[in-house]
Amino acid sequence: MLKKNVGGLDRIIRIVVGVALIAGFFINGNPLFLIGIVPLATGLLNSCLLYSLIGVNTCPMNKR
Fold first, then answer.
1. Which of 6, 19, 54, 64 has the greatest number of CB atoms lying within 10 Å of its CB?
2. What does the pLDDT look like over 9-51, one tens digit per residue?
3. DSSP codes of every residue in 28-53
4. CA-to-CA distance for 53 and 63, rounded, in angstroms?
Protein backbone atom coordinates (compact mmCIF):
# COMPACT_ATOMS: atom_id res chain seq x y z
CA MET A 1 0.00 0.00 0.00
CA LEU A 2 1.14 3.53 -0.68
CA LYS A 3 2.32 5.68 2.21
CA LYS A 4 0.12 8.73 2.79
CA ASN A 5 2.19 11.88 2.34
CA VAL A 6 -0.32 14.42 0.95
CA GLY A 7 -2.69 16.23 3.26
CA GLY A 8 -4.53 19.43 4.06
CA LEU A 9 -4.45 22.34 1.65
CA ASP A 10 -2.07 20.47 -0.66
CA ARG A 11 -4.70 17.75 -1.17
CA ILE A 12 -7.49 20.24 -1.87
CA ILE A 13 -5.40 22.14 -4.41
CA ARG A 14 -4.48 18.92 -6.22
CA ILE A 15 -8.11 17.84 -6.47
CA VAL A 16 -9.32 21.25 -7.69
CA VAL A 17 -6.52 21.56 -10.28
CA GLY A 18 -7.08 17.99 -11.46
CA VAL A 19 -10.82 18.48 -11.92
CA ALA A 20 -10.25 21.82 -13.69
CA LEU A 21 -7.77 20.27 -16.13
CA ILE A 22 -10.05 17.33 -16.89
CA ALA A 23 -12.94 19.76 -17.42
CA GLY A 24 -10.69 21.63 -19.84
CA PHE A 25 -10.31 18.43 -21.81
CA PHE A 26 -14.07 18.06 -22.16
CA ILE A 27 -14.47 21.74 -23.10
CA ASN A 28 -11.50 22.04 -25.46
CA GLY A 29 -10.92 18.46 -26.53
CA ASN A 30 -7.14 18.89 -26.22
CA PRO A 31 -5.68 15.63 -24.86
CA LEU A 32 -2.96 17.53 -22.97
CA PHE A 33 -5.60 18.42 -20.38
CA LEU A 34 -5.75 14.74 -19.41
CA ILE A 35 -2.59 15.39 -17.36
CA GLY A 36 -5.15 16.46 -14.74
CA ILE A 37 -5.58 12.77 -13.91
CA VAL A 38 -2.23 12.86 -12.07
CA PRO A 39 -2.99 15.61 -9.51
CA LEU A 40 -6.54 14.30 -9.11
CA ALA A 41 -5.32 10.78 -8.37
CA THR A 42 -2.61 11.93 -5.95
CA GLY A 43 -5.11 14.15 -4.15
CA LEU A 44 -7.70 11.40 -3.83
CA LEU A 45 -5.19 8.73 -2.80
CA ASN A 46 -3.27 11.03 -0.40
CA SER A 47 -0.03 9.72 -1.85
CA CYS A 48 2.50 11.24 -4.25
CA LEU A 49 5.43 9.29 -5.67
CA LEU A 50 7.51 12.44 -6.21
CA TYR A 51 7.00 13.45 -2.56
CA SER A 52 8.19 9.98 -1.51
CA LEU A 53 11.32 10.28 -3.64
CA ILE A 54 12.34 13.69 -2.28
CA GLY A 55 11.18 13.08 1.31
CA VAL A 56 8.35 15.62 1.53
CA ASN A 57 5.33 14.94 3.75
CA THR A 58 2.36 17.32 4.12
CA CYS A 59 0.09 14.84 5.87
CA PRO A 60 -0.26 15.92 9.51
CA MET A 61 -1.04 12.38 10.77
CA ASN A 62 2.38 11.05 9.74
CA LYS A 63 4.35 13.84 11.45
CA ARG A 64 3.63 12.59 14.96
1. 6
2. 999 999 999 999 999 999 999 999 999 999 999 999 999 999 9
3. H--GGGGGGHHHHHHHHHT--HHHHH
4. 17
